[in-house]
Amino acid sequence: MTSPYARALPLLFVLLWSTGFIGARLGLPHAEPLTFLLIRYLAVISLMGLVAGATRAPWPASPMIWLHIGVTGLLVHGVYLGGVFTAISKGLPAGVASLVVGVQPLLTAVGAGWLLGETVVRRQWIGLVLGFLGVGLVVFNKLGTGFGIAALVPALLALLGITVGTLYQKRYCPSFDWRTGSVAQFLPTAVATGLVAYWTEDFRVDWTGEFLFALGWLVFVLSLGAISLLNWLIRHSNAVNIASLFYLVPPCTALVAWVLFGESFSGFAMVGMAMAVWGVYLARK
């Protein structure tokens, strides 16, 4: 990635991904977490199916490619998003959820060497550890008490999903059409989410203007914008480079929350932001 346009895409991805909390914050009071996500997935499938048909986009060439793309969807969307939304709905503070998921770049670095044969040099390890410490400082003032293991377990599952999903996609299906690939990813995710929601939720939804705005934001900005960028980054970069970007999400989210909702952050958070940015700089080749 050498052009100015290509260099800007990772930063754009971080910005879009960081706004995901807007949808969760606005939408979860009006719908159960998996029901909310199921509606989101069905909307994405419908939209991207129309786009793929209108533009005659190429579909996956074999059942095995369909399978690999579907597995990445289950992990990156189903397990990760389902875990985060469920954890927050059960009372886990957003800052704690960010810190739990923030371990992902370190786990990805281990997996990149083991599964993908990527070499992680000392400078990258230093950057990964520095970035993790920076994320910890950013969310330190948001850490709360009063949540139980039932809220923490889904966040840990989300961490596992995004880590394994990124490595799996990089190894087995790094390149596919973003239009038809979105359909292939979200179809099994919607089926799995719907089945779990059937057994655990009542499909309750309050169709308020706030909920519709949150749904539209998650569908267009996150599922279509950020996920398409993530797929592009996986094709054009190595796993550690991609994972290190997630260190920038909590600082960026804190800034967005400050701008939109007036949420304050401490001096520790300011230092943590600087550490996270410097850590990502060291970790990215």
Tally of contiguous helical segments: 13
Characterize the largest beta sheet: strand count, sense, and whether it forms a barrel: none
Radius of gyration: 18 Å
Shape: globular
Which features does this protein show?
globular, 285 residues, mainly alpha
What is the gist of this entry?
Helices cover 78% and strands 0% of the residues. It is mainly alpha-helical.
How would you describe this protein?
This protein is mainly alpha-helical and 285 residues long. The chain has a domain at 18-120 and 145-239. The protein has 13 helices and no strands. Helix 3 crosses helix 10.
Topology summary:
Blueprint: H1 4-18, H2 20-27, H3 33-55, H4 63-89, H5 94-101, H6 104-115, H7 122-140, H8 149-172, H9 178-200, H10 209-236, H11 239-244, H12 249-261, H13 267-283
